[in-house]
């Protein structure tokens, strides 16, 4: 191999390969250190949201995790000491981003609260499905039957995918409540 070939072809390829390997190893190391912290923070935020939607609960330590559900889309469920239930559902919205919904129901099947995280949706459009004024239309919702857009409930204009994901997640929660109640 000539010196010109080494300098112009082989050396740059070798240097880029070594730099890529070092960068990959550093990213893997950072991920292994931060992943447990991120998971713990997400769990803490979920517990706070469960407490928000269950007015009879003042502390997350009162909640009992429920694992014996089979409803698709449900990512977690808890029961309060008084028998009320909260569940979390996630559905795919715009561009594959998830709309996460946590709903609490009392023992009679009436919604006690709703928490929506649509932060992965388009800002100012899809994120509008999480606005308190929009969510107010679900006040008094019961687990008697699934809901649909245009049948007593409005969609967010311009946010079809996000709205569809919200309604699907709400229906997942209704179905899970009926499975567990």
Question: How are the SSEs placed, and which strands pair?
Answer:
Layout lengths: L2 H51 L10 E3 L7 E6 L5 E8 L5 E8 L5 E7 L14 H4 L24 H21 L1
Antiparallel strand pairs: 1-2, 2-3, 3-4, 4-5
Task: Describe this protein's structure.
- The structure is a single chain.
- With 181 residues, this protein is of the alpha+beta class.
- The chain is 42% helix and 18% strand.
- Strands 1-2-3-4-5 form a 5-stranded antiparallel beta sheet.
Summarize, please.
The protein is an alpha+beta fold.
Query: Main sheet?
Result: 5 strands, antiparallel
Mean pLDDT: 93
Low-confidence parts lasting 5 or more residues at pLDDT below 50?
Answer: none
Strand content of the residues, in percent? 15-25%
Radius of gyration: 23 Å
Question: What features would you highlight for this structure?
Answer:
elongated; five-stranded antiparallel β-sheet; 181 residues; 5 strands; alpha+beta
């Amino acid at each position: 191999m000539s010196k010109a070939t080494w300098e112009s072809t082989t050396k740059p390829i070798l240097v880029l390969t070594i730099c890529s390997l070092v960068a990959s190893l550093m990213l893997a190391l950072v991920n292994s250190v931060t992943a447990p912290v991120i998971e713990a923070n997400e769990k803490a935020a979920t517990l706070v949201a469960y407490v928000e939607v269950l007015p009879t609960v003042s502390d997350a330590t009162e909640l009992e995790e429920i694992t014996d559900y089979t409803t698709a889309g449900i990512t977690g469920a808890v029961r309060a000491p008084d028998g009320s239930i909260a569940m979390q559902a996630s559905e795919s919205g715009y561009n594959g981003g998830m709309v996460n919904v946590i709903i609490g129901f009392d023992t009679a099947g009436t919604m006690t609260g709703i928490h929506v995280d649509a932060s992965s949706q388009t800002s100012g459009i899809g994120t509008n499905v999480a606005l308190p004024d929009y969510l107010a239309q679900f006040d008094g919702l019961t687990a008697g039957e699934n809901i649909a857009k245009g049948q007593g409930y409005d969609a967010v204009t311009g946010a079809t995918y996000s709205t569809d994901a919200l309604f699907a997640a709400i229906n997942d929660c209704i179905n899970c409540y009926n499975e567990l109640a």
